Amino acid sequence: MQGADPVITGIGAITPLGLDVPSSWRALLAGKSGVGPITLFDATALPTRIAAEVKGFDAEALLGIKRARRSARFSQFAIAAAREAFADAGLEPGAGVEQVAGYERVGVVVNTAVSGIPETEENIRGLLAEGLRGVSPYYVPSMIPNMPACEVAIELGLHGPVTASALACASGNAALLEARRLILGGEADVVVAGGTDAGISPVMFAGLSNMGALSARNDEPQRASRPFSADRDGFVYGEGAVVFVIEAAAHAQARGARAYATLAGGALTSDAFHISHPDPTGRQPRRAMRLALERTGTEPAQVDYICAHGTATRINDAVETSAIRDVFGSAADRLLVSSPKSMVGHMIGAAGALGAMVCVLAMRDGVVPPTINLETPDPACDLDYVPLAAREARVRTAMVNAFGFGGQNCVVVLRAA
Question: Most buried among 139, 144, 304, 398, using CB within 10 Å?
Fold first, then answer.
């Protein structure tokens, strides 16, 4: 594969802090929390009754009543984010794409982790209550994991390669690397890529609560997500979508598109250790970071900012800190590291894409969002996590970490355009 690194020319987002990129970014920089009591279902009987929900999202206004009823929430988020990203990139659906890019040369990679779990629960309840009549004829096609990518292609009229992968919490990051491969491999000129998830449901919360993975700070939800803090007690579940337009550099230049950043590359590794617990040695997250630096020709001292995985679980935060220290050596002391999960919770399949958005906008605006709720530092977590308040900083090169269940590690390196 040859050619210059692809560039990011558009961004779209639906997050617990806002229904577009500008509102989400403003709230992140202000250190606002999107966590609150669960409203999507009755959580009274559960140990954890808080989540980072997307608020004020009107699927019927977005898609119309009929289409909203036959699509799942995680697809609806992806469509909304893709619309924003496409417009931000100066592209138009359908004939506009044909004129600008060649609609058969525009692909889609929208990954997810849990796909349509709420829709599955709803239809199972319908089956038990009403039999066959209680199950939607659109249930199966709405909840399968490739549907957000396909719905985005349908929405925008795109006929290039359309793929979807599930890499747990590394899904959103991995979508960017797959988009990069499609472009450098000559299969597409433009790829709409990112991650989406909407898994806030009774069975999900029951399962994660039984694992001991979730924070149970129900009385102070906005303070519940506490990455790298000594008193962290688990992650806060979130939802949303972040989608990018990623474009061959020459193609973007030819049409006069603004480039936010360069997608320099990255790496995937596997712990091959446990289905949910990370390897406490941190060998493979460390290797993923090293490979990402090597493959992108980046020296540790060149990285200005790391958007951390930073889940606020006991072992994850400590392992990530240790791995960063080992990979970056003395350069770790000058690194800025922060976790937006302290504000938006863990957006699961969209988490890595949210991290990439944070990096790109930090480059654009010269400011890094904080890790809120970090009032009691853990001695085992001794990096500069930009605690409590955003900080002005020159960010030219950034790294996004994402480490998922099953030991899937994905690290992406971005550079200012």
Answer: 398
346 assigned to active site: yes
Specify whether the CB–CB gap between 268 and 288 falls below 8 A: yes
Assign residue 4 a region (left: φ > 0; alpha: ψ between -120 and 50; beta: otherwise): beta
Element spanning 153, H or E: helix 147-156
* Spatial distance between the Cα atoms of 224 and 344, rounded to a whole number of angstroms: 11
pLDDT in tens, 42-71: 999 999 999 999 999 999 999 999 999 999
pTM of this prediction?
0.96
Q: Is residue 148 in some structural domain? A: yes
Q: What is the pLDDT of residue 3?
A: 72
Residues 319 and 189 in one domain: no
| 169 given a catalytic annotation | yes
Within 10 angstroms of residue 199's Cβ, the number of other Cβ atoms is: 24
- Kindly report, residue by residue over 135-184, the tens digit of the pLDDT: 999 999 999 999 999 999 999 999 999 999 999 999 999 999 999 999 99
End-to-end CA distance of the chain: 21
Q: Which of the residues 307, 346, 359, 381 is marked catalytic?
A: 346
Catalytic residue among 150, 251, 307, 309: 309
Q: Are residues 223 and 294 in the same domain?
A: no
Taking the C-alpha atoms of residue 88 and residue 21, their distance in angstroms, rounded to an integer, is: 10
Own/partner long-range contacts of 252-259 (Cβ < 8 Å, ≥24 apart):
252/7, 252/9, 255/90, 255/100, 255/101, 257/7, 257/9, 257/89, 257/90, 258/9, 258/90, 259/7, 259/8, 259/9, 259/417
Question: Is 381 among the residues known to form the active site?
Answer: no
Q: Which two tokens stand for residue 351?
A: 């988490």
Q: Are residues 252 and 139 in the same domain?
A: yes
Structure letter (DSSP) for residue 279: P
